[in-house]
């Protein structure tokens, strides 16, 4: 008896798929993939791995090119927390004058506030790679010139001129946020996670940078912190600029009008100014309080705990899905920041205990990152796309100006009242930021 011949596959049948008309083909097939997918339940130990959806940060770095430009940006951003303390240790250690060291760093801060927005405008107009690399090269040369002037005991005015040249350093954090804004356009949840990661990275760099700088300057030679910082800055920017596939495109027509005229930007910058005063006055008050208790060396560790709390809160905030517009979340974030900042004041006034102050700063720092993330999100939304780098750099400039004002106010309060009274300055500055955020509410522009 002849065996039945298999029916040829019909057009459109999937390859290697069993033909139900062929009596020799089994009705069901079991593959290794199917066995892995079977859930046998607790009776059989449930050893199979269930596929879990990736978390928000893991999904973020599946974007092509994201890991590469993030690595370069982190290398370039770490020196931002190194240069200030490196310059102070280097100048004060060789010239024996903290007044001179403070004046030089203040000059560099003022020059940065003036030059940084113009550098960012050039980045928007000509592209990140074309502007960031030469601007960073000038800044690195300025750092090396400062190092040589200090080492060879050049006149004091050369220190001011050299450190002022570092003002051309581009806003690497702003350029990274601009890339995320370009890559994640239309995905608000992913952009929220990206902004949270960037804020956490800022906190991490400003937490590790001073520690690394102090170690290099004390363990090797006074100029080591500045030298390593310049090398890291130049290397990081070169790696970052080499990732051309993720660079935002340059707009053919860039309006000459400054983002300062965009609706809602001036009150945001005023909020940044007030929040900068919080950071500057808190740093001075903490150092003064630790010095009054005879533990000035512990001030750096205590401030690092505040940054650690902010970093952890920023990562957690980025894993959450925000509800409602950012302009409605900002007052709540600033209100939480104002409320938590009363904890260091109470710890200093009631206990005079450094451990309790450290705990209070750790808790109060947890409101910093969510507030900054929401603020930068609003800056991105309200700044015209063609001026995004300039808009975010203006926000950073507002923070720097606020830090300078807060440091001066906190120092004045310490000298004329007490270190404990100086903890009232950050609370007042945060309350001012809260009033601004409640008074000014402008819908974002496209």
Automatic annotation (TrEMBL):
Question: Any signal peptide, and if so, which residues?
Answer: none
Q: Where are the transmembrane segments?
A: 74-92, 99-119, 131-150, 227-246, 267-290, 296-318, 330-349, 355-379, 391-413, 419-440
Output the Pfam families linked to this UniProt entry.
Answer: MFS_1
Q: What is the protein name stated in its UniProt record?
A: MFS family arabinose efflux permease
- Annotated Pro residues bias: 1-12
Which controlled-vocabulary keywords does the entry list?
Membrane, Transmembrane, Transmembrane helix
Q: Which InterPro entries match?
A: MFS, MFS_trans_sf
Tell me the segments the record calls region Disordered. 1-25
Q: Which organism is it from?
A: Streptomyces pseudovenezuelae
């Amino acid at each position: 008896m002849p065996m039945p011949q298999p029916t040829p596959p019909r057009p459109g049948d999937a390859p290697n798929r069993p033909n139900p008309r062929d009596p020799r083909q089994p009705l069901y097939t079991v593959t290794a993939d199917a066995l892995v997918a079977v859930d046998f339940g607790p009776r059989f130990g449930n050893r199979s791995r269930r596929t879990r959806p990736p978390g928000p940060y893991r999904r973020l770095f599946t974007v092509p090119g994201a890991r590469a430009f993030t690595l370069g940006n982190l290398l370039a951003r770490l020196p931002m927390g190194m240069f200030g303390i490196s310059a102070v240790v280097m100048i004060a250690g060789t010239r024996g004058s903290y007044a001179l060291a403070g004046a030089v760093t203040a000059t560099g801060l003022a020059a940065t506030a003036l030059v940084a927005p113009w550098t960012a405008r050039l980045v928007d107009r000509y592209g990140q790679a074309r502007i960031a690399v030469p601007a960073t090269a000038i800044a690195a040369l300025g750092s090396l010139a400062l190092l040589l002037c200090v080492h060879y005991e050049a006149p004091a005015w050369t220190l001011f001129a050299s450190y002022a040249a570092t003002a051309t350093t581009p806003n690497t954090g702003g350029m990274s946020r601009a890339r995320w804004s370009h890559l994640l356009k239309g995905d608000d949840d992913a952009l929220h996670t990206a902004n949270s990661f960037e804020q956490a990275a800022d906190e991490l760099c400003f937490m590790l940078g001073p520690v690394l700088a102090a170690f290099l300057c004390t363990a090797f030679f006074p100029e080591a912190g500045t030298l390593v910082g310049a090398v890291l800055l130049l290397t990081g920017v070169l790696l970052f600029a080499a990732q051309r596939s993720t660079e935002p495109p340059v707009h053919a027509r860039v309006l000459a009008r400054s983002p300062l005229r965009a609706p809602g930007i001036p009150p945001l910058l005023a909020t940044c100014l007030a929040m900068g005063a919080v950071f500057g006055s808190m740093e001075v008050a903490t150092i003064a309080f630790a010095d009054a208790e005879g533990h000035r060396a512990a001030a750096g560790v205590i401030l690092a705990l505040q940054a650690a709390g902010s970093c952890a809160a920023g990562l957690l905030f980025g894993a959450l899905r925000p509800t409602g517009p950012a302009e409605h979340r900002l007052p709540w974030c600033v209100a939480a920041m104002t409320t938590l900042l009363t904890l260091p004041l109470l710890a200093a006034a009631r206990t005079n205990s450094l451990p309790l102050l450290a705990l209070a700063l750790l808790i109060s720092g947890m409101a910093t990152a969510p507030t900054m993330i929401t603020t930068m999100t609003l800056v991105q939304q309200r700044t015209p796309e063609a001026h995004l780098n300039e808009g975010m750099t203006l926000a950073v400039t507002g923070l720097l100006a606020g830090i300078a004002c807060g440091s001066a106010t906190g120092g004045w309060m310490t000298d004329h009242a007490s270190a404990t009274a100086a903890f009232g300055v950050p609370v007042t500055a945060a309350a001012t930021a809260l009033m601004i955020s409640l008074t000014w509410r402008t819908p974002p522009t496209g």
